[in-house]
Amino acid sequence: MAQIAKMELQIELKSSAERFYGIFRGKRYLIPEMCPDLVKNVKVIKGDWESVGSIKEWTLVTGGCERMREIVEAIDDEKKSITFTTLEGDITKDYNDTKAILEVSGSSRPGCSIKWTVPYEKKNCDLPDPSKYIDFLQLISQKIDAYLSKTA
After folding, report:
1. Residue 47 in contact with residue 54, Cβ under 8 Å?
2. Of the four listed, 33, 52, 54, 67, which is most buried by Cβ atoms within 10 Å?
């Protein structure tokens, strides 16, 4: 069995922490409008847009069309942190227990810092790290920030 590892990404953004966090907290349905070249669709499969336990299905553009289902595992509004766990999708072919943890820091003033942490476990030691997914998180974060900055 492979060892659990993690990849991290930290980005400084122009938009406020509250606005950026708000998109992932309960307005992910806006992401296809903000990033049409990266996300074709996001829909609720179970639950709603805001609750722990809710399941969303994403249609992503990551070098092709890819579907992914995630469950919201944890939300901490005080720390502006959300944990998403991947249930299905291409990433689950090569990795076990894949999560994406978003932490947003800053205030209501423009500018914030975000951190994505992706813990994962390779199904086979010969597999590469899931860097394409970290790259995707960086791109989507930057595009959402640009969109929010334009509409401020």
Report:
1. yes
2. 54
Whether pTM > 0.85 for this model: the answer is: yes
Domain coordinates of the chain in residue numbers?
A: 5-151
Q: Which of 23, 10, 6 is nearest to 138 (CA)?
A: 10
pLDDT of 63 reads: 65
C-alpha distances in angstroms, 148 versus 34, 41, 45, 64?
9, 19, 26, 26
Instruction: Kindly report each contact of residues 65-72 with a partner whose C-beta sits within 8 Å and lies 24 or more positions away, as own/partner.
Output: 65/40, 66/90, 69/45, 70/100, 72/47
Rounded to the nearest 5°, which phi and psi values hold at 108? -80, -10
Where do the H-state alpha helices sit in 8-52?
17-26, 31-34
Structure tokens at 51: 């609750």
| Strand, coil or helix: 133 | helix
Give the pairing type, strands 65-76 and 95-96: unpaired
Please list the residues that pair with 59 across neighbouring strands.
41, 67
- pLDDT per residue over 46-62, tens digit each? 999 999 999 999 998 86
Q: What is the SS3 assignment for 121?
A: strand
* Domain 5-151: CATH superfamily, name plus number: START domain (3.30.530.20)
